[in-house]
Amino acid sequence: MPFLQIEDYNETNIDPRFAAEEQRECPFEGGDDNLSAFDSTTPFRLDNAFYKNLLRQRGLVHSDQQLFTNIDTDNRTRDQVIRYSRDMGKFRKDFADAMVKMSMITPLLGSDGQIRENCRMINPPSN
């Protein structure tokens, strides 16, 4: 499911009401295991609401919201967010194409890589 731990707590580029809601869900201290949906509008559906939320300044992750609100962002990136927010077909086609490309990536195996147990830190050494 599309959930993650909130990584950016004191953002200024998101809707203040949305920020307050998320801060209640994930307090500054404690709540480390609390989760929040990437897309608060339709969290269990693959659609373009994520991009619509960015236009409404309701991006959960700093880097995602920056795609739309950062003044230094290349206009092509901002335009792509707008395009995906308006055109579900374009989003779905590009998403499908990206999934096909990703399926061709050879994953690291054995000791060549690791899946982190906590995304914030390297796994402890195994005995």
Give me some keywords for this one.
127 residues; two-stranded antiparallel ribbon; 5 helices; 2 strands; disordered N terminus
Task: Give the distance, in angstroms, between the N- and C-terminal Cα atoms.
Answer: 31 Å
Biggest sheet, open or closed, and with what strands and sense?
A: 2 strands, antiparallel
Total count of helical runs of at least 4 residues: 5
Strand tally: 2
Shape designation: globular
Q: Taking strands numbered 1, 2, ... along the chain, how are they ordered across the largest sheet?
A: 1-2
Q: Write down the secondary-structure element order.
A: EHEHHHH
Task: Please give a structural write-up.
- This protein is mainly α and 127 residues long.
- It is 42% helix and 3% strand.
- The chain is built from five helices and two strands, in the order E-H-E-H-H-H-H.
- The chain has a two-stranded antiparallel ribbon with strand order 1-2.
- It is globular.
- The relative contact order is 0.12.
- Residues 1-8 have low confidence and may be disordered.
Summarize the structure.
The protein is mostly helical and 127 residues long. 42% of the residues lie in helices and 3% in strands. The chain has helices at 16-25, 49-55, 62-69, 75-86, 88-103; strands at residues 3-4, 36-37.
Strand and helix map with partners:
Blueprint lengths: L2 E2 L11 H10 L10 E2 L11 H7 L6 H8 L5 H12 L1 H16 L24
Antiparallel strand pairs: 1-2
Helix pairs in contact: 2-4, 4-5
